[in-house]
Amino acid sequence: GQSLEQPSEVTAVEGAIVQINCTYQTSGFYGLSWYQQHDGGAPTFLSYNALDGLEETGRFSSFLSRSDSYGYLLLQELQMKDSASYFCAVRAKAAGNKLTFGGGTRVLVKP
Amino acid sequence: SQTIHQWPATLVQPVGSPLSLECTVEGTSNPNLYWYRQAAGRGLQLLFYSVGIGQISSEVPQNLSASRPQDRQFILSSKKLLLSDSGFYLCAWNQATYGYTFGSGTRLTVV
User: Fold this and answer.
1) Confidence of residue B68 (pLDDT cuts 50, 70, 90)
2) Which DSSP string do the residues of chain A spell out, in sequence order?
3) Which candidate in B98, B101, B106 is best for mutational testing of the A interface (most A CBs within 10 A)?
4) By the 8 A CB rule, do B108 and B89 touch?
5) Quick one: B27 exposed, middle or buried, by C-beta within 10 A (0-12, 13-18, 19+)?
6) Angstrom distance (rounded) from CA B17 to CA A107
7) Do B104 and A41 touch (CB under 8 A)?
8) Do A99 and B99 touch (CB under 8 A)?
């Protein structure tokens, strides 16, 4: 089966940088996705990495190292609205091309 | 543009009662459809997915069932709810894109 590990919680102040790591175990890996979920809301898609390297989208960037089975989401210039849970998710042949989600990292941004 | 609708938003049901949650997608054809469940403060667990009308795959044996009577309609059902069925139920869709789009979710409390 598939497994993903990410920290359960991270706290930072406004303007800071936060890195959320995700390590995964699977076979037939296709790619790693990141989703943001505010309390009581639905997850929203942030990014997808299929190849090694860094993908930048505004203040958020996502990195993948296929050889290390590792990725991270980088949140820069933190704002209060970034307080949310962030999930990594693996797309893999072993799971029939469906997404398997990690347990999520709760990010708390303080003033 | 594509939209996904899910209802109801909240539901309180007694143990042993039936359940029917509905999800519809607009603006697209032949989407892949998914039902996920999320326990409080936890990750997303895939329950069912469907690649076409009448085609349902179950990921976890449980007290629930799913049906897809129309191309853009996905229904989650139970004949008799258990306390353990409480949770946040999310419908999602995707096609060739790697990102899933989630509905707004149904918060189910079984009492």
Assistant:
1) very high
2) --EEE--SEEEEETT--EEEEEEEE-SSEEEEEEEEE-TTS--EEEEEE-SSEEEEETTEEEEEETTTTEEEEEE-S--GGG-EEEEEEEEEGGGTT-EEE---EEEEEE-
3) B98
4) yes
5) exposed
6) 37
7) yes
8) no
CB contact under 8 A, B34 and A43: no
Terminal-residue alpha carbon distance, chain B: 38
Question: How many residues are listed for chain A in this entry?
Answer: 111
Q: Does B96 touch chain A (CB under 8 A)?
A: no
User: Tens digit of pLDDT for each residue in B69-100?
Assistant: 999 999 999 999 999 999 999 999 987 667 89
Contacts of A102 in chain B (CB under 8 A): 43
- Cβ separation of A45 and B101 shorter than 8 Å? yes
Instruction: Please tell me which of the candidates B100, B104, B105 has its beta carbon nearest to residue A99.
Output: B100
A34 vs A28, which has greater pLDDT? A34
Q: Give the Cα separation of B62 and A97 in Å (integer).
A: 22
CA distance A6 to chain B (A): 11
Q: Do A87 and B104 touch (CB under 8 A)?
A: no
In chain B, the largest separation of any two C-alpha atoms, in whole Å, equals 40
pLDDT at B60: 81
